[in-house]
Amino acid sequence: MSTLAGTVAAPNSTPDPSLPLASQQDGSYPRPQMLRTHWADLDGTWSFRNDGDDPAWRAGFPDPRDIVVPFPPESVASGIDEPGFHPVVWYSRSLTRADLDAAGFGERAPRLVLHFGAVDHRATVWIDGALIGTHEGGHTPFSFDVTEALAPGATGDDVAHTLVVRAEDDPHDLTQPRGKQDWHEEPHAIWYRRTTGIWQTVWLEAVPPVSVGYLRWTNLDQATVRLTVRLTGTRAGGERLRVEAHWHERDEHLATVESTIGDTATEFDVVVPISRQANGQAQDELFWTPDTPRLVDATVTLVDRDGSRVDAVSSYFGVRTVGVDGPTFLLNGRPQHVRSVLNQGYWPDSHLAAPSRAALRREVELIKELGFNAARNHQKIEDPRFLYWADRLGLMVWGEVAGAYEFSPRAVHRLMAEWMDAVERDASHPSIVTWVPVNESWGVQEIRTNAAQQAYARALADVTRALDPTRPVVSNDGWEHPSSDIITIHDYEGDGERLAKTYADDAARTALVGGIGPADRRVLVGGAVDRGQPVMLTEFGGVNYQPGTQREDGWGYTSASDGDDWVQRITALYDAIRASSFLVGSCYTQLTDTMQETNGLLNADRSPKVPIEQIRRAVTGH
User: Fold this and answer.
1) Peptide bond before 293: cis, by omega within 30 degrees of 0?
2) How far apart are the C-alpha atoms of 341 and 574, rounded to whole Å?
3) What secondary structure letter does DSSP report for 283?
4) Distance (Å, rounded) from C-alpha 329 to C-alpha 68?
5) Of 54, 361, 556, 567, which cross-links 599 as Cys (Cβ 3.0–4.6 Å)?
6) The dihedral of CA 508, 514, 515, 517: what is its sign?
7) 194/418 Cα distance (integer angstroms)
8) How far is CA 63 from the centre of its chain?
9) How far is the CA of 202 from the CAs of 35, 91, 98, 113, in angstroms?
């Protein structure tokens, strides 16, 4: 990959009016940081079978049932509502000329790309019985060029093609990255009902013969960003790339860079200097923070050697840096206390799939209303549209993989591949401030003494740093850290006074980090040493309180007798954190009740258990 030698061109203060403004989108576009004008949403009613596995079904199948995509068949929202095991499921729907037209198909965009947001776990796709492709990894997106399969030149108004998807999701295969999806038929302990098959948006897009296929924004410092561009299709040669950055909030043009692309390059970097017209004292007005979530709109245009536009997409980025300095967590070079909540991203009627696109925005809004400035998306690679709202509304996010539960070569390969895809997908979001590839030694249960498991966890952390050296990495959240930039602890002590003693001062820190922590687990393993890193309490609380109907299997790490007792318990825990001399962040367990875990701040339907002002006061101290 090469870095293009760009030139700063004459400013153009008007964004391309033919493209949607990425920073102000409505949250429906499935790929929020690379938008085109047209796309066809294929969500809705599909045909479905889960009672067999006949190879002849690749061209369509008889006696189907209706399912509402993208909701999993275990969920009520899907219309199937069968929570048992589904090792293989089949989907089908027609693709018509109307779908192609909605995707923007035409003379300037004659190629068709079929996108899947996520299919758990292994997907095989056919059109009219012809194999289009396969993908493995239940939480990451994939796409196929389906131009030839759809033969659009022969597609009239009365002609339809048959799209078929087969999804394998072995509920007992513990090498699959699965997160909190239970391998028992009934949910137990901290695991929930499964999400099989399609669970994020399916969509169709028309693109030019050579097009922008991937964008990634990287903050090099507080005045420069790097744009990585990947092209798809067959190039004619001699193309130029034009990048324009505009601050919509102030109607202020920030940069225009034009670069000539080498005749054979398909992936390259463009360095974009961000300069304010105001003096340097005002530069920090542009920085992204939870309190001031400012986004910069950008258009990326590919033109041919004659200057005609070949392709154009709109995007956005945030100007911000994140890192650690000794015991301090830094945002834009300044100390930032992280006040986070554990977010399972699970809904009662739709499981890992959000019940609506509006629900993703509301989730971010609720987290902020409760007094948090961050969320730890737990054991789930969240829908990119959640990350868009975190970017836009101002919520720091810890990006976390969905873990596997076995250590073997196959498990290593699967999780490593899916995690690298997740980092590539999400690295441009300014809201993501930390990466977490392992949680609580899941999949590396013998990491305390097993050198191979230690090497694997270190490798996951190091490959994350290699893919993205701009964010801190936690190698094993909770305990048994072999290589972490932030030391994170999980501690469900329910008594505020006892919690305060554990995290009181530097002497307490030394004893904790250098010894045996909560859950009788060492904090550091594999030769890791205390380098004076920041320390955060990234799981605590989990106080059970059920104000309405009581679940017999409902539980928490401690229990409250009523609403007042519940608020007092949470306040005491936060008072202990506020009194600590060294904790620079925390994460409360958890945002919502989730099935048998009735330890959320909100009920499963997202209603607060007590007036939200009381929860916010406990969390923030004011």
Assistant:
1) no
2) 12
3) G
4) 43
5) 556
6) positive
7) 18
8) 37
9) 15, 12, 16, 11
Per-residue confidence (pLDDT) for residue 274, from 0 to 100: 82
23 φ, ψ (degrees, to nearest 5): -70, -15
Whether pLDDT at 7 is above 90: no
Burial of 68 (0-12, 13-18, 19+ CB in 10 A): middle
**Sheet of 322-325: strands edge to edge?**
322-325, 328-331, 334-335
User: How far is Cα 532 from Cα 328, in angstroms, rounded to an integer?
Assistant: 9
Q: How far apart are the C-alpha atoms of 602 and 371, rounded to whole Å?
A: 13
SS3 content of the chain, % helix, strand, coil (to 5): 20, 35, 45
Structure token pair of residue 123: 């997907």
- Model confidence, pTM: 0.96
Q: Which structure tokens are listed for 89?
A: 């499921």
The string of pLDDT tens digits covering residues 500-531 is: 999 999 999 999 999 999 999 999 999 999 99
Residue recorded with tokens 């939480």: 139
Sheet holding 583-589, edge to edge: 432-436, 396-400, 374-377, 338-343, 583-589, 535-541, 487-490
Q: Where are the alpha helices (DSSP H) in 468-585?
A: 496-502, 506-513, 563-579
3-state secondary structure of 133: strand
CA distances from 272 to 269, 310, 433 (A): 10, 21, 21
Q: For residues 20 and 38, give the distance between their C-alpha atoms in angstroms, rounded to a whole number.
A: 10
* Token duo for residue 386: 């959640």
Q: Which residues contact 212 (CB under 8 A, 6 or more apart)?
A: 34, 229, 230, 231, 232, 300, 302, 311, 312, 313
Q: What is d(CA 159, CA 554) in angstroms, rounded to the nearest whole number?
A: 53
Separation between Cα atoms, residue 512 and residue 518, nearest integer Å: 9
Identify the pLDDT of residue 306: 87
Residues 6 or more apart whose Cβ sits within 8 Å of residue 101: none
Amino acid at 474: V
Asked whether residue 10 carries a pLDDT value surpassing 80, the answer given is no
Q: What integer best gives the mean pLDDT of the chain?
A: 94
Burial, 415: exposed, middle or buried (Cβ in 10 Å; 0-12, 13-18, 19+)?
Answer: buried
**Measured between alpha carbons, how far is 86 from 616 in angstroms, rounded to an integer?**
41
At 172 the pLDDT is: 96
**pLDDT tens digit sequence for 109-153:** 999 999 999 999 999 999 999 999 999 999 999 999 999 999 755
Which amino acid appears at position 603 of this protein? Answer: N
Structure tokens at 74: 């275990």
